Amino acid sequence: MWPVHLRSARQTLTLAGLFLCMGIAGCDDTPWNRPYPAAEAGENILYSSFQERPNHLDPAQSYSSNEVTFTGQIYEPPLQYHYLKRPYELIPLTATEVPEPQYLDASGNKLPADAAAADIAYSVYDVRIQPDILYQPHPAFATDSRGDALYLDLNEKDLAGIHTLADFTAAGTRELVAADYVYQIKRLAHPRLNSPILGLMSDYIVGLKDYAQALTDAWDMTAAGREDGVYLDLTQYPLAGAEVIDRYTYRIKIHGK
Q1: 118, 147, 174: which is the final residue of a domain?
Q2: 138 in the same domain as 249
Q3: What local confidence, expressed as pLDDT, does residue 70 receive?
Q4: Tens digit of each residue's pLDDT (9 = 90 or more) over 145-182
Q5: Domain extent at residue 163
Q6: Mind spelling out the 3-state secondary structure of 10-35?
């Protein structure tokens, strides 16, 4: 056993050595607990963080600031806010212009732009998107020489050895069209998705509440019930408040002004 005075001296030397190492490390201009690779120290990289793990990247289900960090880099809405202007100002993104509303009374008659809010039963927006916008290349869009989908209705044998999208040998793309936006609005009412904004949007988009009930009834009547793999084709169910006008134009009808 070490004598008390020798043990104290040993502890003092140990502490002195520790402080010396810390002092030497402190001379460096990088944090001693830096969690990022040292090889990337000089790169032009912005590191960030989020409070919790994102739960959904599906825009019909995603509704948190942590998730919009990702979805905002992936999905392009028709309109966006100007990045710098305050107060906020809407500007076109995929749309060709910011649409102006047409006001209707309860009978569907057009009203002037300066009509009183109490007289306005509906506001109608025609949104025209830009042509020639393409989706990111993806195996889901891959086709053969005849234009048929390569990876449609894959079975377990077809998926052997497929673990990531990169494992598919082919990819394709297609043009973004107005029907894609209408379909996405319809997806808010899909009974399987439980969209967190369905209730709010049902107060605005004409017919959305009844549409959600119609889809729920159709879903319950499906032969396979609620089992995985059941496909509910929303193109077969029209929604009064969202309709396609032409390839690049769709119409949104909302309650009130």
Answers
A1: 174
A2: no
A3: 87
A4: 999 999 988 899 999 999 999 999 999 999 999 999 99
A5: 134-174
A6: HHHHHHHHHHHHHHHHHCCCCCCCCC
d(CA 105, CA 122): 6
What's residue 49's pLDDT? 77
Residue 183 near residue 215 (C-beta atoms within 8 A): no
Rounded distance between C-alpha atoms, residue 238 and residue 236, angstroms: 6
Q: Which helix H or strand E contains 126, and what residues bound it?
A: strand 122-128
CATH number of the domain to which 223 belongs: 3.90.76
Which one has a higher pLDDT value, 204 or 70? 204
Q: Is 26 exposed, middle or buried (0-12, 13-18, 19+ CB in 10 A)?
A: exposed
pLDDT in tens, 114-149: 999 999 999 999 999 999 999 999 999 999 999 999
Residue 188 belongs to a domain: yes
Q: Do 161 and 83 belong to one domain? A: no
125 plus 203 within the same structural domain = yes
Of 157, 174, 191, which residue constitutes the final position of a domain?
Answer: 174
d(CA 80, CA 68): 13
182 HSE (CA, 13 A, CB side): 28
Q: What is the mean pLDDT of the chain?
A: 88
Q: Examine the domain organization and report whether 139 and 250 are in the same domain.
A: no
Q: Taking residues 21-48, what's their average pLDDT?
A: 76
In this prediction, residue 202 carries a pLDDT of 97
Rounded to the nearest 5 percent, the helix, strand and coil shares of the chain are 30, 15, 55
> Angle CA(21)–CA(24)–CA(26) in degrees, nearest 5?
110
Give the model's pLDDT for residue 15: 66
Count of domains in the chain? 2
Residues 82 and 184 in one domain: yes
